[in-house]
Specification:
mainly alpha; 70% helix; 0% strand
Length: 146
């Protein structure tokens, strides 16, 4: 189950890095007044996720049960920050057709950087993230172990 959690974590990371790349390429950090995602929110989410992933890999290599729990605890604020970003993204995505391209302070194409995220990537990132949290918890609890 620990390897399954690692795989879902890595798939989650791929989606996250793709969205980070789109956000940066579309001017997110250069135009923070137009983005619903403050850079600190993204850096916090990414940073904690990386710390948790490193802890999880160390757990898999050492089989130190305490590390599984620490990785799980680190995932909780990662999830909270992720839900915060989702809650900020959804209203903008729903209203994206209602915002004229000439809106003041809008990006080069009139939309905040995060409005360029493909829905399938956002959904996949979220689903893999939920699966990761569940698998990490089950592993920490010793359920489904080898």
């Amino acid at each position: 189950m620990g390897i399954a959690a690692l795989i879902t974590w890595l798939l989650t990371a791929v989606g996250g890095f793709y969205m980070l790349t789109v956000w940066v390429a579309k001017g997110g950090p250069r135009q923070p007044s137009t983005s619903r995602f403050p850079p600190a929110l993204i850096v916090g989410h990414l940073g904690l996720a990386v710390v948790g992933l490193v802890l999880w890999i160390i757990y898999l290599l050492t089989d130190a049960d305490a590390l599984a729990w620490v990785a799980f605890v680190v995932l909780l604020p990662v999830a909270a920050l992720g839900f915060t970003m989702l809650a900020r993204w959804v209203p903008g995505y729903r209203a994206r057709t209602a915002v004229p391209a000439t809106a003041p302070g809008a990006g080069a194409d009139g939309e905040p950087a995060e409005m360029h995220f493909p829905v399938v990537v956002v959904a996949g990132h979220g689903l893999f993230a939920v699966a990761t949290v569940v698998l990490v918890l089950l592993t920490a609890l010793g359920i489904g172990g080898s």
